[in-house]
Amino acid sequence: MRAAALIGLLIALAAPASAQPDEAEREALRSFLESTISGADSFTDRYDAEVWLVDMSSRLARFVDDPQQRLQLLRQIHAAATAAELPPELVLAVIEVESHFDRFAVSRVGAQGMMQVMPFWKDEIGRPDDNLTDNLTNLEYGCRILQFYLQREKGRLHPALARYNGSYGRRTYSDKVYRAWRDHWRTEPLAWLE
Fold first, then answer.
1. How many domains is the chain built from?
2. pLDDT tens for each residue of 58-68
3. What predicted TM-score, i.e. pTM, was given to this entire model?
């Protein structure tokens, strides 16, 4: 599938069924998608960037209405996940379970942002002024914390996710992440078995 076809697909997916975007909207979205793809430096191939961004954008539409915001967020998620050597689809599943893509989410225990990062982490790494509701900051923290726990658990997803959530020894949380990944974000297999 060529870039123009992918852009056309994204535009079609972006519009509500009852209304087609006007030409100016389509052109703005086309331009934004092209710039997002060219700036998606966490991808090794432009075609892979096009396919992944369009595919994930259609999946993310149920949580984020604006197509430009979706593409920007997906690019940020892909970059943070790739930098932390995590599958971006796993990070998308974690975010779905943690916050349903609400950057201002705060849990009952004080975890903040899309990946529900506990504020004590800011002091742990000596950056007390960081804003955990800033997507880039939150994604960087969340992905690195998950990377740490995956390394600690030697790649075993269930215990690493339980540590991330603070529920080590139980699978309730990791099973939720698994279901979100399986039902909404899966593109290729992950080693979910222990």
1. 2
2. 999 999 999 99
3. 0.80
